[in-house]
Write a structure and sequence with these properties.
CATH architecture: 2-Layer Sandwich
Oligomer: single chain
Number of strands: 11
Number of helices: 6
Radius of gyration: 19 Å
Number of domains: 1
Strand order of the largest sheet: 8-1-7-4-9-11-10
CATH topology: Alpha-Beta Plaits
Helix content: 10-25%
């Protein structure tokens, strides 16, 4: 038996880095597996080096539906009085930090019903603070959706779950549009799938920054009248 947990990732700013070392801090265009697992681990109170507990979260199958594509933005940071590597003085470090502005995602996790039930009970009452890639990037609304936990497969959830957009003008514009732009989806898949794309963001141990490669399928799903509905989506 399997289950699915649908979560709403909505915030003014989100950052999902995969190569964020040194002076360049990148972001992908949708949540990474490592970022989502880190958020869930915080909600459950799992420590960075607890590889067994992290493995259970990382083994959940993840599908992301992009309900609103974010705008890629860049912060330009200057940090003064940073010690030099030789320890003989200080220097000024300039860094570039990328993030997504006004992005909105439906994140669906599929797998162990007992684990997903635990997550359903704590994501909006987390053990430790949750955030979207950086500590300052906190959720703008509850993570749980109206029909968050179900026994529906993830593929069916992303094809039928109500659209998470709450802007009435955007909803009315899509309702009237003759041809709608499909919603982009990114889902875990087998490496043997001919359309599989590698992503090096499957966490193994956060304490030692150990990751391995997973494979995803990038696709689209139609934005239907039923998904738009008569009013905005509800969060619990």
């Amino acid at each position: 038996m399997t289950a699915s947990l649908a979560l709403c990732f909505d915030a003014p700013m989100q950052s999902w880095g995969t190569r964020s070392r040194g002076v360049i801090r990148d972001t992908t265009r949708e949540p990474t597996k490592s970022g989502v697992v880190g958020l869930l681990a915080s909600a459950l109170g799992i420590r960075r080096g607890d590889t067994k507990a992290l493995a259970g979260l990382a083994d959940l199958r993840m599908t992301v539906r992009v309900d609103r594509e974010g705008i890629l933005e860049r912060d330009y940071h200057t940090t003064q009085n940073v010690p030099t590597t030789e320890g003989k003085g200080h220097r000024t470090v300039v860094s570039e930090r990328y993030y997504l502005a006004d992005a909105l995602f439906l994140v669906v996790l599929e797998g162990d019903p007992a684990l997903l039930t635990r997550l359903h009970g704590c994501v909006d009452r987390p053990q430790w603070p949750v955030f979207f890639g950086r500590r300052a990037f906190v959720p703008a609304r509850p993570l749980r959706t109206a029909d968050s936990l179900s026994d529906v497969p993830a593929g069916e959830v992303v094809a039928t779950h109500p659209w998470l957009e709450i802007d009435p003008d955007a909803r009315e514009a899509e309702r009237r549009r003759a041809r709608r732009t499909p919603l982009r989806t990114v889902s875990d898949c087998a490496p043997t799938d001919p359309r599989a794309e590698p992503r090096h963001d499957h966490p193994v141990d956060f304490a030692s920054r150990a990751f391995r490669t997973r494979h995803v399928l990038v696709d689209t799903t139609e934005l239907t009248d039923d998904m738009i509905g008569a009013g905005g989506p509800l969060c619990t």
